[in-house]
Amino acid sequence: MQGIRIEQKGDLQYLQFDAFARSGRITHGFTTRRGGFSAFPYHNLNMALHVGDRPDHVRANRAVACAALGINPADLVAAVQVHGSRVEVVGPQHRGRGAVDYSTAIPDTDALITNTPGLPLSSYYADCVPILLYDPVRTCIGLAHAGWRGTVQGIAGAAVAKMREVYGCDAGDILAGIGPSIGPCCYQVDVPVQQALAKVFSYWEELLKPVGPDRWLLDLWETNRRVLMDAGVKAENITVARLCTACRTDLFFSYRMEQGKTGRMASLIMIKE
Question: Which residues form the signal peptide (predicted)?
């Protein structure tokens, strides 16, 4: 777990990247499943409004997690994640979208970027890869939600490209963090996924480990690291948590290991005012 640490406040546990925390200009975190109010099968810190959990429990969970990070939960900006490649440029007009009511979340979007201080971005996941981005030179941030489809579509690279286009970032200045998600130890995929990767990545054989006839283990961590590097992010500026959600259902929600009936963690990031 080099470069990432677990923080605890009461029963609440969340993770932070050292490189992000050192700047002092942003607040960020990845929640775990510990420290909330939700009942089985969303126990305990389910952060998502769209999975069938009681909304009052989710709002209470968000309040606890946001308080630890100095975020107003009413200000959260969330998207309806669709495993795509759309990046939304977020400004003050988006404040609170998806914070209380899922129907107000930004539609059909898997990455958010902003340079507005005090405007917290959020994404929700339970095996998919959460990616945080921070440019300390241009003082702008971003996050992306990357399942295998979003990874193949280059959602992380699209977010970097949009930060360059909108905020004038140099990709070499951007810090990136790849959070807890299903690891290469557990993420078994089939022929359609293998074929999709082979069409996009010339180095696809480095990302897949054969484990049987027409079955492979896919390394989404390395794939997204390579996507970020292809977009110009320096290898030394990328931190990978290397925590597998499927291995650690004591600490994380896992859609695959819990047969789809479970909660979601959140990735959160905000420029301090």
Answer: none
Sequential DSSP letters for 54-91: -HHHHHHHHHHHHHHHT--GGG-B-B---SS--EEE--
pLDDT beneath 50, residues of the chain: none
pLDDT value of position 1: 63
pTM score above 0.90: yes
Cis peptide before 72 (omega within 30 of 0): no
Q: What one-character DSSP code corresponds to residue 21?
A: H
Q: What is the pLDDT of residue 186?
A: 99
Alpha helices per DSSP H over the chain: 18-23, 55-69, 148-152, 155-167, 191-200, 220-230
Residue from 271, 267, 270, 272 nearest 110 by CA: 267
Out of 1.25.40.10, 3.60.140.10, 3.30.930.10, 2.170.150.70, select the CATH number for domain 4-180+236-271.
3.60.140.10
Q: Would you say how long the chain is, in residues? A: 273
